[in-house]
Amino acid sequence: MQVEGQAVVKRDEKPAEKHQNASHGAAAHAKVNGEVGQGAGNAGRAAGGAKNLKNASANQNRSQKRPFKRDFQGAPRGRMEHTNHQSQYQQHQYQSQYQNQNPYQYQYQYQTDERTGLRKFTGRARLFVGNLTQEVDEKAVKELFEKFGEVGDVYLNKMKGFGFVRMDHRHNAEAAKAELDAQMFRGRTIRVRFATHGAAIRVKNISPFVSNELLEQSFSLFGRIERAVVIVDDKGKPTGDGIIEYENKKSAMQAVGKCKDGCFLLTSYPRPITVEPLEQKDEDDGFPEKTLPRGPQLEKEREQHPRFAQIGSFEYEIGMKWKEYEQQERNLLEDAKRKAESLRDGLEAEIESLMLEHQTTLLRDELNRRQEQLKEMEERHYHEINRRREMEKMRIEEERHDMMMMENRRDHMKNQGAGA
Predict the structure, then answer these.
(1) From CA 198, how far away is CA 185, in angstroms rounded?
(2) Inter-residue contact 180 to 169 (CB < 8 Å)
(3) DSSP 410
(4) What distance in Å separates the CA atoms of residue 108 and residue 223, rounded to the nearest whole number?
(5) Distance of CA 342 to CAs 44, 78, 335, 336, Å?
(6) DSSP letters along 355-393, please?
(7) What's the farthest any 2 CA atoms get from each other in the chain?
(8) Cβ distance 208 to 238 under 8 Å?
(9) What is the pLDDT of residues 130-166, one digit of tens each?
(10) pTM
């Protein structure tokens, strides 16, 4: 819900969903009782359940003898059935747990641009400013960047000569960086670069059925998210990895810790995701010539220009040794990758077998439960028939007794009339 540039996320609507799920559960329970209460006809259903159990066991034996199809993430296609009510209940319990622990993370407000509706002052619009003089204050730095857009917080470390500036939007930060980097300011050439996002995490083992929206919704349990994206390749196919950027580092560390200690599942397939801090890399600016440290070591390394080593020379022999090492390293990595894939295939086959056994156990338990219900219904039916028979017998006895009393009374009246 967004009102006047502010967004509020509410979690109070979950009890209503829980009440709705309880209603569905009560209806399903009533339906089961209705089916069981049909009497002797349920014996056929019990026999049919036994036949289904036998077929499930036979399918399990056949599945162990033939390979199964799976997607590129390793999740078997089909052969998986999970109860929706159980999944919703577990999700509600999981959200309630974090809501009770961190209630301040579920109701928050943030600024948005009234014209575009985009979030303002995110971590992606944060700039690093270096090589500042000690006389520069926050006001001067803010005035320097205000011509490119609205400036949020400004932090300066005057002793070390650097600071951080948070702009309103990413494109304004890019304009400020392009204009002010390597420019003179108060007698020094300042450096302006994008600051690393300290509250970003990387998510692995993501199912190909998880979208950006589902990823953000799932990880919003730990705090406010600025950006959540599932990484895809050049063809738009998910790679199984994702990036989440939180507003503060505390939420990111909480997400890493909770997912490391527990099994956080995003879909029906029970493979937990892996969460780790995002390794920050600068792939935009790189390492320009002006940032190289000047000294004798640089001059020594730059004595010769880029070249191909001549065959048979000392440089060529040293270079070939490095190439041989790199080839051996690639071979070792490929062998390790093949072993890992073999272990993964074995694990997937074992998981499929376990899931089939679990489904068979659930089916057997359901069949036993229905048989117990049928047995109880038959016992109640038997007791009810006996009770009605006893009541009918008592009624007949009472009627016979009443008739005998009436006959005795009639005979008595006749005797009195004859005596008179």
Answers:
(1) 28
(2) no
(3) H
(4) 9
(5) 46, 22, 11, 10
(6) HHHHHHHHHHHHHHHHHHHHHHHHHHHHHHHHHHHHHHH
(7) 159
(8) yes
(9) 989 888 898 999 999 998 988 988 989 888 999 999 9
(10) 0.55
